[in-house]
């Protein structure tokens, strides 16, 4: 029963002045408040309490219960990821890219940032030691040779929360990852956040490169050709957090607007190069120029590449990202040159 919780957002939408309404039907306001905050686990709630709350909201009891398939976002401070394809805690995340597109730099950066958050990071060392693999090895707290070694490592840890495992796609194809996760589940280990890369570059051509994923980060060759790093495709990359509408409303609304905006911008980019920007309506020209700013804003210098780029790595909170993106879409920063947005952090730093 630990994997269920009260659908507080639905309850508050349906019932105005919840505690007052609860008292009117004989429920203790303190009990309802504690259920909403999680202080009282939902599994310990009396059935009559849930029935009364469901009647107040005019929904079924099942509608008031969020079950264990709900997932949670891990904020990374990387703008394009947090906005368009959030990292799912305990989920399976797949990076899809051809060799040389920056996926190993991205994986190393993610591990670096998760280390800073107090996570335990592990990497199953692949047999293919491709260029760039050192970025991942240097940022992994534990380098394991086999999945059995990972199992022994995890079961020997006192704190088994916030576990991050990185591995090559070959460990998915041979079934080792799924076997490992099942074994860990059998001994009561909490879910492990699993990051998967494709060192051979075969995943790009597969419809389901890793099987079911919770988050997909797809790299874009067109962005790479223009040195727009990190080259995560803002339209094709996605997360179950978005599909399940499990994020805050502001996040959902902003990413939907930005994604729609960038789709149109990409169309206009092609049309403009073919027919000329001067032939476009003014509204389309505005979309195009703001799209340029948004695309440049989504680039970001990494913490792990400071020595190579001579640029200070930037971390941008999700709240800052959402506010900045809304300002760009509204045209509030049209006066700032496009180049100023490239490889920077938040707009406040411009």
From TrEMBL:
Gene3D superfamilies: Bovine Mitochondrial F1-atpase, Atp Synthase Beta Chain, Chain D, domain 3, P-loop containing nucleotide triphosphate hydrolases
Superkingdom of this protein's organism: Bacteria
Cellular localization per UniProt: Membrane
Keywords for this protein: ATP synthesis, ATP-binding, CF(1), Ion transport, Membrane, Nucleotide-binding, Translocase, Transport
Entries under PANTHER family matching the protein: ATP SYNTHASE (PTHR15184), ATP SYNTHASE SUBUNIT BETA, MITOCHONDRIAL (PTHR15184:SF71)
UniProt similarity note: Belongs to the ATPase alpha/beta chains family.
Protein name: F-type H+-transporting ATPase subunit beta
Native species: Robertmurraya mangrovi
Organism lineage: Bacteria, Bacillati, Bacillota, Bacilli, Bacillales
